[in-house]
Amino acid sequence: MGTHLVPWVANAVSDPRALALSVEDGLVEGAIVLLASDVVASERQVRAAAFAAQRRWERGTAVARSLAAEFMRCLAGSHHVGEAIRAVGLTAGAERGWLVAISVASNEVEQRMNANGLQPASQHAMTPEGRARLGLPTEGDAEVLALGRIAESDLLA
Description:
By secondary structure, the protein is an alpha+beta fold. Helices cover 48% and strands 14% of the residues.
């Protein structure tokens, strides 16, 4: 199963929290997370955050109350779950983003996307605003810097 990273487009999202809950509704294991379109530098970054979150979840050392929130915390490089969700999560009006599925079968990911009006898209680029929300410097390799934030989140927790 592993980690799936899927860029998506849709009609403007009016309630990001309701959409996230709907996409994950009834999921027996794993997690599905919806991210802002501009906070992913690479698949390697997402896999590193997923690995850190899963490891902490399995060891019982997670800060968050769900694997999805722990993933967002790790990705954002934060100790605070609320800050992490604000940094990497969807905002109202978003018409595109990333779906990250951790330990969820790819056919189930596709079904959940279709049921919630999310269509696969071409990859989205990290923006200067996304870098800023992640606390990354304006210059330098975004992937390497983002990986450092993930490692930092693991150390801070």
